[in-house]
Automatic annotation (TrEMBL):
The gene is HaOG213502. The keyword Calcium does not apply. One of its GO terms (molecular function) is zinc ion binding. This is C2H2-type domain-containing protein. GO terms for cellular component: nucleus. Residues 46-74, 75-102, 103-130, 131-154 form the C2H2-type domain. SMART domains: ZnF_C2H2. Pfam families: zf-C2H2, zf-C2H2_4. SUPFAM superfamilies: beta-beta-alpha zinc fingers (SSF57667).
Amino acid sequence: MKEHERVLHLKGSKTRKCGYCDERFMDAVRKQEHEVKEHGAPIPQFSCKACGKCFDSQRSLKEHTKHFHLLLRPHVCSECGKGFYNKTEMKRHLVKHTKIKEYQCNICSKFYVTASCLRSHLKIHDNDRGFTCEICGDTFVQKKSLNLHAAKHAKSVVDDLENADSVDSTEIPYNATE
């Protein structure tokens, strides 16, 4: 909030100095863009510690972490109780409760609630397998199919761990040279 007040409400407060020249900027993003563009500075990379995905700003990394790893879902659908990270996601979801299906597939004539659902469905007809399992390489037309498939891998890992816990330690060979 302090950054917001400083940048937008304190006119002319250019407190961020370029590390290469005397030019000053109102915020860190503008300073960073200048340093990269004018001085060839490397583009900073902020890496997610949970999944390794890289971002070009600390803010993007923070949003990613809250959305995908902390699973914050403060916006709750009044119809079904499903939680969403932001209002836009929730509004998109609320359309599903209207039951008005105005988007029709021109191939099989099925109707869908949203244009996004129809686009996703059309990939089935094109056999567009754009989602690949990172574990086994299987490909899927829809992300939800990949997610269901990935859940099977996760269950398999949990089962393996549970079975490993039940193994008697006397069955594990001891190697004295280690």
